[in-house]
Design a protein that fits this description.
By secondary structure, the protein is of the alpha+beta class. The protein contains 22 helices and 17 strands. α17 runs antiparallel to α18 and α20 runs antiparallel to α21. The chain is rod-shaped, with a radius of gyration of 69 Å.
Length: 756
């Protein structure tokens, strides 16, 4: 059954929770952005409506309820818009912390929009608060307060004047009626006449004489007020007590008075006069205005705080709306710039296929995006062309390096300035260096021994410069045959090619062959007369020894010296012959341990004063070799070591130490190694690299052929002969045989031989 991993966004909508489906749908239709736009627009409209309601503009009027409702709406919108803006600002801050592309520009744009929007809002709020404060100070100034107080005093004085007037009329009429009370009690008609005449005389609209229970005894002609309303009992009691009671009311346009007629048994005088309605309305309005003014004056600080809070709310609404607009605009502006920055970073990382969305025609950012896409397209095409060209160059270079790597000669490419550009493997091996060290260096620094040849090639670029040089690297001297030729292009020198071969072995072989021919001739020419000389000396001693009477000892010593020197010369001639006629090695499997033990045994007997130590493995060490020649190698090396120990200077450090020679045999992976160490004076400082050449020796009695024979035998065995100083003093000779068959091979051959 083939199972595939399905991304959660690829699941059917029915399999998703309702919340996740709603979130996907809202992101698809852009619901958060649309809601934010709606809230910002509502906040702006609500702020304008609140300002209109505060100023009393239509259709809100001066109803404070409208202001309160709009202020609550402003607060709700302020909270919602603040939450939206806060979320956006937190996201922007997190992007800034993560170092997102364009986040710094985003923050600067938002800050600029906020500053531009908040500055007018703050200025308007400050000026509104100052204007309100100055307006309130003007409204509640001392002049206005004094004018209103004086208006109230005038209105109250006007009403007081009418009350005093009606009081005086009431007292005057009461005196007139009391003075004629005896005549009027008995004659009600005359009482009515007198009341009517006194009312007309004083211009009173209402005049009546009544009892305490409200029965009217007499009245003027048009006085019907008492029939429509009854006087309150407290007023009657005050009048009964002798007080002149003046009656006024806000709903009535009259000033009335009630006084008791003391000359009558149960009678009260009621008088009234109408006040002009316009004057009364003015008085009432003045009183209401003054009361409202005093109330507002007490609430002045509350008004200031309320209006300032309203201004702050509206300013915050405008500020948050502006910040959101700034965020939206910054998003529109920063999004393509962020895309450009991200694409530029990708291009910097090497992704030249990076592209950005192109905007509308005529848009500067769109033009920049199209220019960027064209640039990256051209860079990608050029990169592909360069990659292809470099690929071809690499293929050619690899081919050239493969060709040069297969060449045994060292090859170095130089530029026109003599700097190394291309060394092959053989050159690195011969110069004992690496490509990183040589490349880019001058010949004078890299191989100073070739500098004079390069200078000669630069002076004569049309000729091939060839010369042998001696090169010392890592304590090993080599003889190199160097050739330098100039490389030209269009008649100009573009570089030089240096080739060199290691001819050290060739020179040594030539020298060895020459010495072998010389040795063969010397052995032939010298060996022939040695036997007659020796026989003649022995015959002289036998025949004439008895006849010599004067100094016979000298005669015997001379003949013995002749015989001994002849033997020494014959031994030297034998060595020459052995070097000149080195037989071909006969290879067969041999165990190195017996060969080494036999060679050490011979030298131990010859030099009993020297300690010989053997370090042999427990298992046999088998290899293909010529046992006779290998024994001769070991004999020569052990003899040289013993002679070196015997030649130590008595005054040198360690001269009193017992001579010690150690022979080690090791079987390594594909190699067999024999090491011979001594505690002698060590290798000489001069001609150290020529010790294995024929007739090179530092000893008085040496012929210089021992190490040359060892080197020749190791060459025939395809081995390596290494001479070096021992760390603790003395010399070390190493015979290393490479490409040796495994022990399992030799065991298998042995089994086959025994089985046959």
């Amino acid at each position: 059954m083939n199972s595939q991993q399905v991304h959660p966004q690829q699941l059917p909508a029915r399999g998703l929770p309702l919340r996740q489906r709603f979130g996907n749908w809202s992101r698809t239709v852009g619901l958060p952005r649309k809601l934010a736009i709606a809230v910002a627009a509502a906040a702006v409209v609500s702020g304008i409506a609140t300002y209109g309601a505060m100023s009393g503009a239509a259709p809100f009027g001066t109803d404070p309820t409208n202001v309160l409702i709009l202020l609550n709406i402003d607060l709700v919108l302020l909270l919602i818009l603040g939450a939206i803006v806060s979320v956006r600002l937190v996201r922007l801050w997190l992007e800034r912390r993560r170092g997102s592309a364009g986040s710094k520009l985003h923050i600067r744009l938002v800050g600029l929009f906020s500053l531009v929007s908040v500055t007018p809002a703050i200025v308007v709020a400050v000026f509104s608060a100052l204007f309100l404060n100055f307006g309130l100070q003007a409204w509640f100034s001392r002049q206005v307060s004094t004018a209103l107080d004086q208006s109230l005093v005038v209105a109250e004085a006007y009403m007081a004047e009418h009350r005093e007037t009606i009081r005086g009329h009431a007292l005057a009429m009461a005196n007139d009626l009391n003075s004629q009370a005896p005549f009027l009690v008995q004659n009600p008609g005359r009482l009515r006449q007198l009341v009517n005449r006194l009312a007309e005389l004083r211009g009173l609209s209402d005049t009546a004489v009544l009892t305490r229970n409200g029965r009217i005894l007499a009245r003027s002609g048009l006085s019907f007020a008492l029939e429509l309303e009854r006087l309150p009992e407290p007023v009657m009691l005050r009048a009964a007590a002798g007080e002149v009671v003046v009656l006024t009311s806000e709903a009535d346009e009259r000033v009335r008075a009630l006084v008791r007629l003391v000359a009558f048994v149960d009678a009260y005088l009621y008088v009234g006069r109408y006040i002009e309605s316009r004057v009364l309305n003015h008085v009432q309005r003045v009183q209401g205005a003054v009361g409202q003014y005093k109330q507002l004056e007490r609430r002045q600080s509350g008004f200031q705080i309320t209006f300032v809070l309203i201004f702050v709310v509206v300013a915050l609404l405008v500020l948050l709306s502006s910040i959101w607009v700034g965020l939206a605009f910054a998003n529109q502006l920063v999004r393509p710039i962020s895309g450009l920055i991200s694409a530029a970073e990708r291009v910097r990382a090497g992704e030249l296929s990076a592209r950005v969305e192109e905007g509308d025609e005529g848009d500067e950012i769109g033009s920049l995006s199209r220019a960027f896409n064209r640039m990256t397209g051209q860079l990608e095409e050029q990169r592909d062309e360069l990659v292809e060209a470099n690929k071809q160059l690499d293929e050619r270079r690899q081919f050239t390096e493969a060709v040069l790597g297969g060449v045994s000669a060292g090859v170095i490419g130089l530029d026109a300035n003599g700097l190394v550009t291309l060394p092959n493997r053989s050159a690195l091996s011969l110069l004992d260096s690496s490509a990183d060290i040589l490349t880019g260096r001058s010949v004078e620094d890299a191989v100073p021994e070739m500098m004079h040849l390069l200078q000669e090639a630069q002076a004569r670029p049309d000729r091939l410069i060839e010369e042998e040089i001696e090169l010392d690297r890592g304590g090993r001297k080599r003889t190199l045959l160097v050739r330098i030729v100039a490389e030209k292009m269009d008649g100009n020198i573009v570089g030089y090619v240096v080739t060199f071969d290691d001819i050290t072995a060739l020179v040594a072989a030539q020298r060895t062959a020459a010495w072998a021919d010389v040795a063969r001739r010397i052995a032939h020419e010298i060996k022939n007369p040695l036997t007659p000389i020796q026989l003649a000396a022995e015959r002289l001693k036998r025949k004439y020894m008895s006849e010599v009477s004067s100094e016979p000892e000298i005669f015997s010593a001379c003949t013995d010296t002749i015989v001994r020197q002849v033997n020494d010369i014959r031994q030297m001639v034998d060595e020459f012959s052995a070097f000149a006629r080195m037989p071909t090695a006969v290879m067969q499997p041999e165990n190195l341990q017996p060969i080494v033990q036999q060679a050490v045994l011979l030298q131990r007997v010859a030099h009993p004063e020297i300690e010989f130590a053997l370090d042999l493995p427990n298992e046999p060490v088998i290899m293909d070799c010529d046992s006779r020649q290998l024994g001769q190698c070991l004999t020569n090396l052990l003899k040289n070591a013993a002679e070196a120990i015997e030649s130590r200077d008595g005054t040198a450090a360690g001269a009193e130490e017992t001579g010690n020679i150690t022979v080690k045999v090791r079987a390594e992976s594909g190699e067999r190694v024999i090491e011979i160490e001594d505690n002698g004076p060590g290798l000489p400082a001069e001609n150290r690299d020529r010790l294995s050449e024929p007739y090179v020796t530092t000893r008085v009695r040496g012929t210089g052929l021992g190490l040359a024979i060892v080197s020749k035998i190791m060459e025939d065995h395809a081995g390596e002969f290494i001479l070096s100083d021992r760390t603790s003093g003395g010399a070390r000779a190493v015979l290393r045989f490479s490409n040796v068959k495994s022990d399992a091979f030799y065991k298998g051959v042995k089994k086959m031989d025994t089985g046959s």
